[in-house]
Amino acid sequence: MSVKNFVEDTITSHKITVFSKSYCPYCRRAKTMFGDKYPDADIGVIELDERDDGSDIQEYLRQKTGQGTVPNIFINQQHIGGCDDTMSLQSSGKLAGLIAA
């Protein structure tokens, strides 16, 4: 499976998709928030540092979204951004609506 197909299939297979690195504190913060606030949501987490093709996936995501950093988060196939973007949506009360849609 190509990197593009893997990424697109992963995004469409989960309500929330987090492209992450296992050692990243911002990734950990976002994953913890989703787990605490939305424990019943279908969350797919891809740890790029644990995959042989992780750098290729990150490069494809950069081309797709313009964001080269992790976490790179999608909700209902919509690119949300990174940790700060996600936390801002949570603080404003908008994140729950995106997840519920």
UniProtKB/TrEMBL annotation:
This is glutathione peroxidase. Its EC number is 1.11.1.9. PANTHER family: GLUTAREDOXIN 2, GLUTAREDOXIN-1-RELATED. GO terms for molecular function: glutathione disulfide oxidoreductase activity; glutathione peroxidase activity; glutathione transferase activity. Keywords: Redox-active center. GO terms for cellular component: cytoplasm. Pfam families: Glutaredoxin (PF00462). Residues 16-80 form the Glutaredoxin domain. The keyword Hydrolase does not apply. One of its GO terms (biological process) is cellular response to oxidative stress. It comes from Armillaria novae-zelandiae. InterPro entries: Glutaredoxin, Glutaredoxin_euk/vir, Glutaredoxin_subgr, Thioredoxin-like_sf. The keyword Transport does not apply. It catalyses: 2 glutathione + H2O2 = glutathione disulfide + 2 H2O; 1-chloro-2,4-dinitrobenzene + glutathione = 2,4-dinitrophenyl-S-glutathione + chloride + H(+).
